[in-house]
Amino acid sequence: MSSIQLTGLGGCQEVGRSSFLLDFGEKVLFDNGVKLTPKETEYPLPVETNLDGIVISHAHLDHSGNLPHLFVESDFMCYMTPPTLDIAKILWYDTLKISGYEGIDLDWSETEIKKTEKFTFPVHYRKPVDITKNSTLEFFDAGHIIGSAMSKVSFQDKSFLYTGDFKKDETRLFKGADLDVGNVDYVMMESTYGDRNHSSRKDIEKLFVEEVQNTIDKGGWALVPAFAVGRSQEVIDILKEYRVNAPIYLDGMGQKAARVMLSYHKYLKNHKFLKKALEDVIWIRGNQMRKKALKQPSVIVTTAGMLQGGPVHHYLKTVHSDPNSSILLTGYQVETTPGRKLMETKRIDIDGSEYTVKAKVEKFDFSAHASQQEMLDSLKKWSPSKVFLVHGDKDVMPVFKGRIEEDLGISTHILKQGEKTKL
Ligand SMILES: [Zn+2]
Ligand SMILES: [Zn+2]
């Protein structure tokens, strides 16, 4: 058999700009994302070869954000689930809008988004498709966000599984990853939480709801910054499940994402409940409604999850100085973001001035990524002959590699940026 090679183009010893090239005589690219930092956007290394196909694991920009760029000069067939395409389109158009405001010169435009769409072949979970002459792709539910997929590519007599971002355990919105993927020889796995475990989801939900209700009972506002895709809707679902007694508002890009999510019944654990929950809350349109939401104690779920722009700033102006209110962070806060600064220093910038926040600040670990134990359990089930680790911090990955090798005895390689390695 000819040799098989894997090249790391981005998302190696880092979280962001994921992109990996698998070459088994035919060339398949997994993901093509960007890394957004407050200062700049970082891109994966260029693809310097003709591709036979592109597989996109899920819509998050660190996996899909650079895809339209690949269509500036070439056409490739792309494979992703239908919700991934719909959510990615929202994010790509938003990227165009933001780059317009900030005067950033992207080399792609609406034309490339349309081209990407045209060349995308929709693939559903557990429906194998031939993507090149000699290979087959099968998607399995990754349990991370709507439409997220683990991608199994089979070629010659081998098979390669790329987990993308995945969550094995159940959450309010998703059943958890579908681990019944059959035989796999190689696994390329994310390792975001390779060095730690999460508290039980139920415990986190309870603590969160308690904090919200306490705030309301004190007469304050519970301001909940949340990511647009997944977290905003999950938080609403939780607030309704636990019957929080207060007006609940949904603001920001989470509204658009919610519409897409609700159009895909089969991709959600409990479509009916989520639909009812989202219909029961008040969708904010415009500043008049924002003012009204602050007239009485209320819960406001809004973007941006790390306070980088978005309508959350409108509310922060009022909420930050109220000791009876709370700001409840619901996701990972990347270093150097305003959310991280708030979490660590209780300070925040509003309209050019810095304030010490009087409202309570709390963070809840609603992760959509597998914990170390979830990942080890998954690998144990799959029992591949080799593991490649990607999508993790430099300090975290060796810890996880150690655990895989010690506990499971599976040879594990940390893929490096620009490295081409034989399988
Ligand atoms: Zn993701
Ligand atoms: Zn990711």
Helix and strand topology:
Elements: E1 5-10, E2 19-23, E3 27-30, E4 35-36, E5 41-42, E6 53-55, H1 61-64, H2 67-70, E7 78-80, H3 82-102, H4 110-118, E8 120-122, E9 129-132, E10 135-141, E11 149-155, E12 158-162, E13 186-190, H5 201-217, E14 222-225, H6 231-241, E15 248-251, H7 254-262, H8 271-280, E16 282-283, H9 286-293, E17 299-302, H10 312-319, E18 326-329, H11 338-345, E19 347-350, E20 353-356, E21 360-363, H12 372-382, E22 386-390, H13 396-408, E23 411-414, E24 420-422
Parallel strand pairs: 3-6, 6-7, 7-8, 12-13, 13-22, 14-17, 14-18, 15-16, 15-17, 18-21, 22-23
Antiparallel strand pairs: 1-2, 1-24, 2-3, 4-5, 9-10, 10-11, 11-12, 19-20
Helix pairs in contact: 3-7, 6-8, 12-13
One zinc ion binds near residues 58 and 60.
Written overview of the protein:
Keywords: Hydrolase. GO terms for molecular function: hydrolase activity; RNA endonuclease activity. The structure is a single chain. Helices cover 31% and strands 23% of the residues. The model has no long low-confidence stretch (mean pLDDT 95). The protein has a seven-stranded mixed sheet with strand order 8-7-6-3-2-1-24. It has a seven-stranded mixed sheet with strand order 9-10-11-12-13-22-23, covered by helices on one side. The protein has two domains: 247 residues, Metallo-beta-lactamase, Chain A (4-Layer Sandwich), CATH 3.60.15; 163 residues, Rossmann fold. The chain is built from 13 helices and 24 strands. Helix 3 packs antiparallel against helix 7. The protein is an alpha/beta fold and 423 residues long. The longest helix has 21 residues. Bound molecules: zinc ion (ZN) (2 copies). The site of one zinc ion has 4 residues, from loops.
